[in-house]
Each structure stands twice: as structure tokens, then as C-alpha cells.
Amino acid sequence: MHSHIRYLAAVALCAMSSWAAAQTVRIGFIAPLTGGSSDFGNSARFGAELAVNEINEVGGYMGRKFELVARDDMGDPEAGFKVSQELVHKEKVDFTVGFCNTGVAMRSLEVFQSAKHVLMVPCSQGTAVTTKYPARDSYIFRVAPPDHTNAKFLVSEVVDRRQWTRVAIFADRTGYGDGGLRDLKAELAKRKLEPVYVARFPLGVKSLVEEMRAAKAARADAIISYAVGPEQAVAVKSRQEAGHNIPYFAPWPLSFRSVLENAGAGALEGTMMVQTIIHNTLNEHRASFIARYYKHSSETRIGSLMAAAQSYDAVNLMLRAMFITKGDTDGAKLKAALGRLGRPYKGVVTTYNRPFTDDDHEAFTENMLFLGVWKKGQIEFFYPEDAKRAGFIRRKKDA
């Protein structure tokens, strides 16, 4: 039995009470369970379900079982807004874990903020998700790297480490692509640089061959692509079809199973992406989580390991906030508790030691990120030294 499960069991046995046993803790969950983003949406769902099941196996919180009330936002902002209202106002869930797509999240944030209802975001990385409201007033928290951090990581990798100054940016026309483009331009501007070429494209685009040729004509040293999974597949296939082997970098959507399925291992070979977690047997805790995930989901390949692990950790961090509030799920009390988590939680992605404060609702900092690379249909650490250190945990700066 894992250490955090033993801890939960001890607390549950010591704090069991008959009045609490009858009250179920209902967790809202929102993700794209169908549509183009369903691979990582369902990974997030399976990760959250696994956390709920394990918590319930040791008695829940003070005898109170957890229940996941899941809704499909289909990757559509209006659908996400509708189910957000349903969960908060009709179902009256205690708190919500949700959102994979930035545009969908942004449409619904006001539902949670106005109701003083805690939303823990396990996947959506758009910078604006946690900056729309001042942190001290905000009920929005995140267990995923924000895009301003991703952009800093990628530009540092391309420009600072490799000395490539001619950067082309490919960005889809979603809230995710819009925000990523802004963040990348801001990072380049800090170095007195501008992108040599920018390609914008809608969801559902079938080819980007001409755009790849234009990037080559602009003498770009590297491409940084901000797009959701299906469009990442189109971009890497178009790069291959254009006969252009320009180095290709992206945030986490490049790692999705659907990108491999739609683009093929050949087109992906050597492309690089930001990751918070990469499967490596040197880290026993992560390897154990992956084995439990496969048993729970019956998948043969995880749609997104990051989505699964971050959702699992998000549920467990909310449980620890409940220990501080002594089971009270009032939004204001949960919000205050998240800023004061005491005992470190050994999660799957990292060990969380004060992941949040009143003024910081982001659980990740740049030093916690890895550069992954596609090799023969598998994601590996780009740098051998990262693979060697995979058994160690990278913790948040200034934690």
C-alpha cells in the first residue's frame, strides 16, 4: 500500500463519525469526453476516477465517500458553460476539477468565481485561466504548467540553449493558440527578437504544407507550435510532406496518443515537447500509478499521461484541503485551506510542498518541466541526465 494511502487510512480510522458517514462528497468533473480532445479528456477522467476509488477504498474522508459527477464539455465553450452551471447550481457539487481546453475554461470561469466555488484545473494551460481574477480573490487553482511558463521554457530551450534566433510560430485559432502566441512573442521580445514567420489556422485544417514552406523560406531555425492534438498531427505531417526537417517544438499536446495515431511515428520522430511527467521505471511511484491506471481504464496506451497524473493529484490535493477545513466544503474555506496546505503530499507528478499560497494559485514552476522527444513511437527524455535523475522529484521553487 502506498504511503499516501496509508496516511488516508489512518486519518479515516481516527476521525470516523456516524454523522459524516451519510454525507457524500460530490466532486464535479468537466472534460472533453467526446470529440477531438477526448483522448486527453478521458485520461483526465480516468486519473480522477482512480483517485476517488482509492480514497473510497480506505473509507473516504471521515467515513464520507467521494463521488465523481462527470460531465462532457465536448471541447466546446458553450457546452462547457452549460455543464458548469448545471454542476454548480443544480447538482450543487462541493468543488470541481475540470477543463482541458483553454477556450472552454475561459467561457466558464465566471460561473465558479461568482458562486465562490473552488475550481481545480488539471489540464488547461492558458495563462489567462488563473490571471483573469487577482489570486487573492480567485477561486481558480491549477495543477498544470501555465503557458507563460511553457513559453519561457521553450524559448529558453530554443534561443538561450541552442542559440537559434530565427523562430517561426504556428498557432491555431483557439483561445489556446491565441494565448500561446502572445506568451511566445512576449518571451522573444525580452530577448529583442520577433518571430520570423507566424502561421495561424483554424481547427479542422487539413494541410499546413504551404505554411511549412513559408517558414523555410523565412529561414526559420526552429518551429514552436501551439495547437491542440489534431492540429499538431496535421502540422508534423505537413512538415514531413514539405520535406522540411526544421526542429519542431511544442507544449504538451504534441505528446497525445491521438497525435501519434493521426501523424504516425515517422512524422513525429525527433519532435520535442514540454512535459511534467515521462514514463520511466526509475521512479517507482510513477510506475505504480501507471500500472494502476491501466488496470482501471483498460486502455492499451494512455491518451495523455500528464492529464491522468495531474487530475489524480488534483483530487488528492482537494482532499488535503478538506483535512484543514475539517470536512467543510464551503468555497471560501476550501480556498483558504489550499493556500495553507501543511503536510507535503507525495503525488504522481511531484511532491507538493505548499503548492499554493494566497497570491499564487499555480502548482508548477519552470524547474519542474522536462523536454520530451518522440523516438520510435515513444516519448523519452531528450536529455540523458534528466532520465538518470527521473527517480528524483522536482519541487516547486521557493516551496
TrEMBL record:
InterPro entries: BCAA_transport, Leu-bd, Leu_Ile_Val-bd, Peripla_BP_I. Residues 24-373 form the Leucine-binding protein domain. Keywords: Amino-acid transport, Signal, Transport. CDD domains: PBP1_ABC_ligand_binding-like. Pfam families: Peripla_BP_6. Residues 1-22 form the signal peptide. Belongs to the leucine-binding protein family. This is ABC transporter substrate-binding protein. It comes from Piscinibacter gummiphilus.
